[in-house]
Amino acid sequence: MWISTRGKLNRFDAQTKTFAQYHSDPNNPDSISDDEVTMAYEDRAGHFWVATNNGLNLLDREKGTFVQYHHDPHNPDSLGNSVINSGALYEDRSGALWIGTIYNGVSRLPGEPGKFITYRNNPGDTNSLSHNNVTGIHVDKAHNVWIGTETGLDRFDGQTFTHYRHDPKNPKSLSPGTARTITEDAQGRLWIGTNGGGISRFDGQQFIHYRNEPDNPKSLAGNLVKNIAADAKGGLWIGMQGLGLDYFDGQNFVHFKPDKEDPNSLPDPYIYALFVGQNGVLWIGTVKRGLVRYDPATGTFTNYLLDPEQPGNQAANWVQDIYSDQTGLWVGASSGLFRFDPLSEKFTHHYTEKDGLASSSIVGVRGDAQGNLWVSTTNGLSRFDPKNKTFRNYDAHDGLQSNEFSRIAHAQSPDGQLFFGGVKGLSAFNPDKMMDNPTPPPVVLTSFSLFNKPVEIGGKDSPLQQAINVAPGITLRHDQSVFRFQFAALNYTAPKKNRYAYLLEGFDTEWRYTDAENRFATYTNLDPGVYRFRVKASNNDGLWNEEGAALTVQITPPWWATWWFLSLALTLLLGLAFSGYRLRIMRLRRYSQKLERDVTERTAELAAKNKELEAFSHSVSHDLRAPVRHIDGYLSLLRENIEPTLDADNRKLIETIASATNHMGTLIDDLLSFSRMGRQELSKTSVDLGALVADVVQEMAPETEGREIDWRIGELPVVVGDQAMLRVVLVNLISNALKYTQKRERAEITIGCEPDQAAETVVFIRDNGAGFDMQYRDKLFGVFQRLHRMEDFQGTGIGLANVFRIISRHGGRARAEGAVDVGATFYFSLPKEKA
Predict the structure, then answer these.
(1) pLDDT band at residue 272 under the 50/70/90 scheme
(2) Are 58 and 45 in contact (CB under 8 A)?
(3) What confidence score (pLDDT) does residue 420 get?
(4) Which DSSP state fits 195?
(5) Which of 141, 148, 533, 703 yields a CA-CA distance of 20 to 30 A from 632?
(6) 345 with 380, same domain?
(7) Element (H, E) at 665
């Protein structure tokens, strides 16, 4: 039994019936931190916690000692305040302990150790890390962790950090400059490469320096050392910035530099990564030339570009680290993670951010006992499973020093613990104990806003009469059109890595995802109706609470959109529409009757006038024929009697009279034909167009004597129509083709039928004659319409009008296409009928 008082902590042993007292001793760090106890608490794991006015204490039951937790102003991860309120200890379901302090709010202590332990510089603690910028790490044979920092070298024994710095007054101190790389030789000596101070060798007592000596060609090539690797012979390979590669055999430095005259030489003097493989083969990571292999047996360098299409491109070929496992080499580069097969000498895999890496800019690669790769980047740490090709990413929210890691600043202890350094400290973890958070987080709605203002609970006209997280639903007016939900996942282990997804059923078609920085959902101008808002969340390790939280949202319509108003309005509209329809029908009937009377009267009038016009045209044409014949007869007598006595001018006048008389006769004949075609009854029979065309062409043969004409007559069908009238159509169209091609050395006239049409037969006559301008095509089939001068081509302007009338009377169509000086094509169609 434990009894706490304001003066001391007492434990009563029921078996011995004795008390044990625990007192604070300022000189004993293992004693309780203060005698004034505010609360004692035993958690589910059996840990006994004691809160005091000067910190929190954890009792070690076996030793009877305490681990003290205090507020440290230099450590943001320490207790918020050392004065703890009475009764202010609470354990949540994850096992985390919540501590309420007097002046600085609530602190949370995770129930289980975090995934990562991070060590940082504490200005008030001389035993802490010397500087937060960690640049190199090595674990020696004695399990000490050696850390290179911006201010020197640290040794960490698991409890405290021992610092080694450059002392200008002590030649046996560490070389100046940042400690970039640390390695150990077979004798257990450390070799530290610095950024400007060359190399320091440390035997545990003193540092011995190796620097560039301008007058000594066998000294170190340069003092900017980027990497050191020991081989099986006891030698050291040293990579430098801009000065190539050195090999140190214990006495002298041998230099390897690029040689433009030697294709087998080192291709790039900027070396950042070194790895000694089987048979002493050295693998080299360069800045601009990718991966390089050096074979000591042959003394040759072989270059393998990460991107062969961009040789010399630093962004594409900068190798930062090299790691080897049973499958081959893993190359960490500024452009991603590459797997290289030494047998085939090819890169077989390439992984980037698109595949799941925290960043494509890789600065370190290290394996664990489970076959996973741990890849440090400039934006977090990635665990890669090569078998399943999956990534799991960690960042500062998980407890890492930061998201930015340093180049090749990593190491592994014999017990499997991994160390990675970055710009804000050193992170350590055991890969075998990296357990994901198994608890899905509870999800709650935390607030509700209208027009970006929080809604008051229980206020006048407020849609919320109780807290949003317990309200069964919410009802909004139609004019409350902009509203927002805020929500939270009650997971406090790396809460910034919680993820959320929300959906408004009835509006959203898929889940919308967001992060811990944007825990809200906004909706605007929704239609009236009933919706259901749902939100779910995952914890820091991606485990989702699929049930989440939900709330019904009802948006009421305006009065003019309610069902009763719409029903009334619909009834009224239907009544008005029916009345209007009846009135419209009555008016249409009266108008239709009047229109029928007007059409009947007008049709009769037009028929009478048309009959008069036809009769007049026939009479005029018939009456004109006799005078024209008399003129032609007298003209013939004049030619016989007096033409021999006339001079050339008078004979030309007689010829002009004769030509005009012939034209007048032709015009009168065409007018009579045009008049007859309009009055004559159709006598439809089966007409073989092929035979009819052949007959017309044969009839016109005398007119074509002496001309070169290429007739191209295709297969023509049998149609239903008036054979005499269709003959007139063909005579007009074929004679036109002959007339307008008379100026061609070789006339081409094609007569054919377009591909079978379902309802009509389409016939065409095509020539390569004078053609016409398509903008005048509407005039072609008008009476007395001509598109060419009489001097160029004779004609009356009635032939095509006759064609149009005949085809129209058959229920068909006539049209034409042409181009000036190219030719013309005339089409006519006839409906498909049975004779």
Answers:
(1) very high
(2) no
(3) 98
(4) B
(5) 703
(6) yes
(7) helix 648-679
pTM, two decimal places: 0.62
Which single residue is written with the structure tokens 């393998």?
304
How confident is the model over 706-714, as a mean pLDDT? 90
Q: Decide: helix, strand or coil at residue 474.
A: strand
Q: Are the CB atoms for 469 and 461 separated by under 8 Å?
A: no
Q: Between residues 606 and 205, which one has the greater pLDDT?
A: 205
Distance CA 270, CA 433 (A): 38
- Look at residue 353 and tell me if it is in a domain: yes
- The pLDDT, as a whole number, for residue 635 is 65
Furthest-apart CA atoms within the chain: distance in Å? 175
**Are residue 27 and residue 79 in the same domain, yes or no?**
yes
Q: Which residues contact 9 (CB under 8 A, 6 or more apart)?
A: 2, 3, 21, 22, 32, 35, 37, 40, 50
Going by pLDDT thresholds of 50, 70 and 90, the confidence category of residue 656 is low
Structural domain including 685 reads 681-831
Q: Could you tell me if 192 and 138 are in contact, meaning their C-beta atoms sit under 8 angstroms apart? A: no
* Identity of the amino acid at 701: A
Let me know the angle formed at the C-alpha of 222 by 220 and 227, rounded to the nearest 5 degrees: 85
Total number of domains constituting the chain: 5
Q: Are 63 and 205 found together in one domain?
A: no
Structure tokens given for 666? 């032709």
Using an 8 Å Cβ cutoff, are 20 and 70 in contact? no
Distance CA 340, CA 290 (A): 12
Q: What is the per-residue pLDDT for 669?
A: 57
Kindly report the CA angle at 224 between 223 and 225, in degrees rounded to 5?
A: 100
pLDDT digits (tens, 9 = 90+) for 234-245: 999 999 999 999
User: Could you give the C-alpha distances from 731 to 311, 797, 807, in angstroms and in order?
Assistant: 81, 15, 14
Residue 630 pLDDT greater than 70, yes or no = no
408, 431, 451 - which closes a domain: 408
